[in-house]
Q: What sequence folds into this?
């Protein structure tokens, strides 16, 4: 399998963390790309020019990160990361949605922060920041469990992105239960081995 990727992308991190948790990472060849430059090799597999994009061993191109993560979980036997039924399933999928929502808001805010300052930009950024603040409060009120699943992996990647791009806005002191969970969960190899970094 081939994964179009960048080491700074939190959505890519979700996929790599799932692959490590499923012991599939050695089956994945990493193809570095810069999605914002719309390279032809990425457009050939993903018309949205976004990463992650996985090309499976039988040539199918899959995106976005929830789809790829569920595909990886389906490869070998029964699902491990996506609880198949019941409360555990809906809790994990809702956690993934909250984590991806934090990422969507935080990534959009970071992109806007690189543009010239003006009132409309600042209002948009404030709205994205408020979405993150509210979602962190919800996670603090009902912290994730220690279980390694798509919900907890996604939350760890979202919090890791805040640390990576918004280190000047510390969240731990105001969210002690989430911080304690994050510190424990970070010891899992799937998180410890996927620390984000800028592409060189
Ligand atoms: N919902 C998508 C988001 C993917 C995404 O936005 N990836 C960013 C990199 S962090 C990207 O490729 N952006 C390029 C663009 O939007 O043109 C997912 O979960 O995979």
A:
């Amino acid at each position: 399998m081939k994964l179009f990727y960048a080491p700074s992308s939190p959505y890519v991190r979700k996929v790599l963390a799932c692959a490590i948790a499923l012991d599939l990472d050695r089956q994945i060849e990493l193809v570095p790309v810069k999605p914002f430059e719309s390279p032809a090799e990425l457009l050939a597999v993903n018309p949205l020019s976004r990463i992650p994009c996985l090309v499976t061993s039988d040539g199918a191109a899959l995106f976005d990160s929830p789809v790829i993560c569920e595909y990886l979980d389906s490869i070998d036997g029964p699902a491990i990361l996506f609880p198949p039924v019941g409360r555990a399933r809906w809790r994990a999928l809702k956690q993934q949605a909250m984590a991806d929502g934090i990422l969507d808001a935080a990534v959009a805010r970071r992109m806007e922060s690189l543009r010239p300052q003006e009132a409309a930009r600042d209002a948009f950024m404030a709205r994205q920041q408020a979405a993150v603040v509210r979602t962190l409060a919800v996670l603090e009120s009902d912290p994730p469990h220690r279980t390694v699943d798509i919900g907890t992996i996604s939350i760890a990647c979202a919090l890791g992105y805040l640390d990576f791009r918004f280190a000047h806005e510390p969240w731990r002191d105001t969210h002690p239960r989430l911080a304690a969970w994050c510190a424990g969960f970070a010891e899992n190899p799937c998180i410890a081995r996927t620390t984000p970094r800028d592409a060189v």
Notes: The chain has a mean pLDDT of 97.
